[in-house]
Amino acid sequence: MLTRDATQTAALSLAPARTENLLGRPVAPMSLAPTAFAQALQDAQNPGAGTNAPVTSSPSPKIITIENGDTLIGVVRDQAEARGLKLTGSQEMRLARQVAEANRISNPDRIFIGQKIDLSALERDLSGGADGLAPIMGAALRPSPALQTHAAKPLPQSVVRISSAHPVLEKTLDRAVAKGFIPPAEKTAVFDKIVQMGSNHKFSPDDFARMTLMESDGMNPRASNQRCHGIIQFCDGPSRGAASAGYGANPKAILDLSVHKQLSLVDKYFDDVGLKNQGPAGLEDLYLSVLNPASRQERVADTPLNIGGSQARALHVGSDTSAPITRQSIRQGLLQNAAQRLGQMLPASMRLQAQKAQQYAENNNP
Fold first, then answer.
1. Paired strand residues for 65
2. Which of 287, 263, 272, 293 lies closest to 203 in space, CA to CA?
3. pLDDT tens-digit map of 307-333
4. Closest listed residue to residue 301, CA positions, set 332, 270, 323, 273
5. Does the first or last residue of the chain, that is N or C, have fewer Cβ atoms within 10 Å of its Cβ?
6. Mind listing the pLDDT tens digit for each residue in 55-85?
7. Angle of helix 187-201 relative to helix 205-216, nearest 10 degrees?
8. Structural domain boundaries of the chain?
């Protein structure tokens, strides 16, 4: 069990993301025509067409119009997926910035409804143009198995994504770089490592970011309360976090490791507490895996959890340290804390939860 420092601050609000954030918000996919490879495959599967068959083509549009919720990174992702290509997070970001540069967009984090975006450069990259894929994406960009037997299918125009890939993680990493927690050159490696861990241990990378915003002010590798240390607060003592990470004899040595190196310790710790064995882990299960793994067995949202020691006010029902900690109050506290640190506002659904939590606290603490 990892205990926490009572001086951790509670958060106030969480706001819906802005539609103009290109590299971290949802996107409306564009319709795409089959690639040359897919067309050749289709011809091979229909030999009766012959050389006398009429040749038709409907090239995908090179210019799109930005709609509400669109982002550059989402455009890149959907264009790639329509071709059966899988990009890493860093590749998506690199190509999104490339599209911004080609369109003379000085700030790639701002986009406007109705803005015209030319995708010619992106089309060349994803279709294996003059420069080819390898110099830009490297070996990590590869066709999905489905592309080997089926032509790429256009995405329906009516589909609109309601969330980007990992906007909270992206904002948290930007903040960590600005605060000096992560060197700018290491940001992409940290992003990719967290996404890989999320896939392995079945948690949301955004939830991991929210957890670190509570535990270490958003991935401060030198965060410590003299008993717990690092980005998820590995604590001293036998069979606790630091010991699980291999630093039981000298827990404070964790503070000398970079964020990227500490993530390897987090990966090992999650293996030790069996996070992936819990099935897809929600925000509460992820946080309880750090705070008190045994409490994951309690599934009722408003049942008090057996968690001792001093904890942050935001984790308690109604942000009252005399009130219990529940799954619901953990979720509420982590979302509010992340909102405050990232400068967001609380959405309507969370405001209602906050009101209910406050009412609970008042009814049980007259």
1. 116
2. 287
3. 988 899 999 999 999 999 999 999 999
4. 332
5. C
6. 444 444 578 888 777 788 888 888 888 878 8
7. 110
8. 36-48+56-148, 167-364
